[in-house]
Specification:
- Six copies of one chain form a homohexamer.
- With 131 residues, the first copy, chain A, is mainly α.
- The first copy, chain A, has six helices and no strands.
- The first copy, chain A, starts with 13 loop residues before the first helix and ends in an 11-residue tail after the last helix.
- Chains in contact: A-B, A-C, A-D, A-E, A-F, B-C, B-D, B-E, B-F, C-D, C-E, C-F, D-E, D-F, E-F.
Chain lengths: 131, 131, 131, 131, 131, 131
């Protein structure tokens, strides 16, 4: 389950239901995934986290598919099993193909490799890259 | 500098020069950045790393700008100063606007936040997300 | 199980039993959790680790509840499933309420978010914060 | 400096000034630190991040000193230089003594050590710790 | 299973079979482990990753046992469950004893501890260690 | 400098001097590096950390050079600048050649790459690797 268990819609406080309603309306689904039900024990965190995610993941200068893929990339790099599973689903729903997934993972792997080569070799920043 | 110092073109072995030449030709520049000059002490690693980067970052199902932005996202998440500086430059060269950069960072920050909420709350994977 | 399996009290060497005895006496329990039984194959590591934990987690300028919550915070940030489970139990035993847990997680999440915004935006340290 | 540079109060848009004003009022200072000036290029992220920090770090079931120390603990664990410097200052302002700092670091170090022993030894979660 | 499932030898494309054949010949086994079958959906990544691993893990200035132990050390530090399990097996096959495993883990744990003490205490690099 | 500054031998308490003396005797040097001088403000942590390092890094089933290289590998993977600098020096003093360094870094980079491919592809552990 989860440390504090899950809060189902039927058992939720009005302020939690309001967030659940907005999640379902925004995502055009009748499903609330476990993450939200786990943090709903803290209504302030639930509301703040959802509103942040909603704002950040909306279409902007980057389209939602790209944002979902970046989210999946970070989650893969951090090794967060739940996050990888849920954002793989979300990215696919947003249109990610298997080939795009594979290319994304190749970049994630490569970046993690060269990040460590740079650290280990103590590479100094080129003057032209300094801000 | 770097642990083993930098190898300049003039001092490089033929197999190192061949990689430097390919980097400059592929990137249409006459500049070799410090990373390559630092790892050139190990020609096998230099060649392997460059060929991997070249293959992975080429246009495919994801375009090069997106790939550079994912590279920057991972480097930011890992806190690799050199990598952030060099891939910010590379992403800008590939067309990243300041607004795209800011949206990218917002996703990176958010993913790192929710990854830890998920771990700390011990959220179980929804059946529908399981592979 | 664990890479080397678990060493039960009945099968333990005298120096391992001595550590087990001290864990049970210090914690006022008759239960040895899996972590200690897994590393008991290396009596030097068992003894050193237990003595360090015992010293560090004792009451001092910070009380044991705060120390357990920091331990849980770090474990959540690192995504160590076993550590999160065991230190959630320990923090609760030391008096952590559900509300304290939720506030702790909110700080852990936020710190992980802003840590990456800082890295990605390459923010320079303010002179007044330099040591 | 920072990737996009710093936005000073005199040059800020009204919505950025409003956040700066709230930071100064809340913290009872006339100083805006570099982090906020670096992310002010994205007013939505500035506002969202500040409001989240303000909500999370306010007194609650945990007092502000403890929250600042947890923030510092996570930043130390992540190796974020800017965050360590700024939150050391913030924790001290909230009352952290040198002895509390030293005990905090001891817990951070120990947790990072045992987190890896647990992973490497592949320790299975005790039934009594499962949620 | 895995995000894209596993590709078995019987169902594999010729270029995938060629890599599988080389893995089995190099490792003198008739077993292909899940990692390779999971990434085989992207033949370019499969081929590149295998050739890199083969080159890097071959005998050189460091012998293969040491290399496998370093691989296991990094995987333990990163908390990658699959990697820990598979590289524990590989290191044992290369000759790692239980005592060597235990000493390796002690170093991994200690390094993770002092890495954070260094960060948290903001220790400046000694002049004599600068490159 | 460091958060609490450095404690020089001349200004040290007797229990700190005793540790400094043992470091110098064990390492056959008259130099105390900054790490120890930074944590000496907390004599208990200084003593505990030094005794742990001394025990762990001593010759055993793994020789000191291998242990220093593993320490450097972890520090590079974690991106700890101070630790990389100081353990590069220590590993060289213990006999690490430039070629061994380069091979070590290649393994560190590769492990970090495949750790993320494994996570991102959600690869299930092979039955034969389970403990």
């Amino acid at each position: 389950m989860a440390t504090l268990g899950f809060i189902e819609y039927a058992d939720a406080l009005p302020e939690v239901r309001a967030v659940y309603d907005d999640i379902m309306a925004t995502r055009q689904t009748d499903y609330i995934n476990n993450f939200w039900k786990a943090i709903a024990h803290d209504p302030a965190t639930l509301k703040r986290t959802w509103e942040s995610v909603k704002q950040i993941m909306a279409p902007g200068a980057l389209d939602p598919l790209i944002k979902e893929m970046v989210y999946l990339a970070i989650s893969s790099s951090n090794g967060c099993g739940y996050c990888i599973a849920s954002h793989t689903a979300a990215a696919r729903k947003a249109g990610m193909s298997d080939t795009q997934f594979a290319e994304l993972m190749a970049v994630v792997g490569m970046a993690n490799e060269t990040n460590r080569l740079v650290s280990g070799y103590q590479v100094e920043i080129d003057d032209r890259f300094k801000v």
